[in-house]
Amino acid sequence: LESFVQHVKLNKYQSKFIVRECRENATGKIYMAKIIPYIQENKQEILKEYEILKSLHNEKVMGLHEAYITPRYLVLVAEYCTGKELLYSLIDR
């Protein structure tokens, strides 16, 4: 994870997940990282999102670039839509 994402840290909010901007060290390209905390009791439920996203290959859906599973977090690294609302970015595709 450290070779790919630079300075992505989880804040202690009460939200279900946190989204952070991150940069690929090798290319400088910007992505978004969705950081989802989990406990062993809900790990399989949380991993379903990862399984679905990795099976999707459609130009109208933001692509999953990387995923990391740690003992406490699932980190999904996906394309970053900039400049306008997500809905408009998807419509333009």
Automatic annotation (TrEMBL):
GO MF annotation list: ATP binding; protein kinase activity
InterPro entries (UniProt xref): Kinase-like_dom_sf (IPR011009), Prot_kinase_dom (IPR000719)
TM spans (from-to): none
SUPFAM superfamilies for this protein: Protein kinase-like (PK-like)
Segments forming domain Protein kinase: 1-93
PANTHER family: SERINE/THREONINE-PROTEIN KINASE
Name of the protein in question: Protein kinase domain-containing protein
Organism: Maylandia zebra
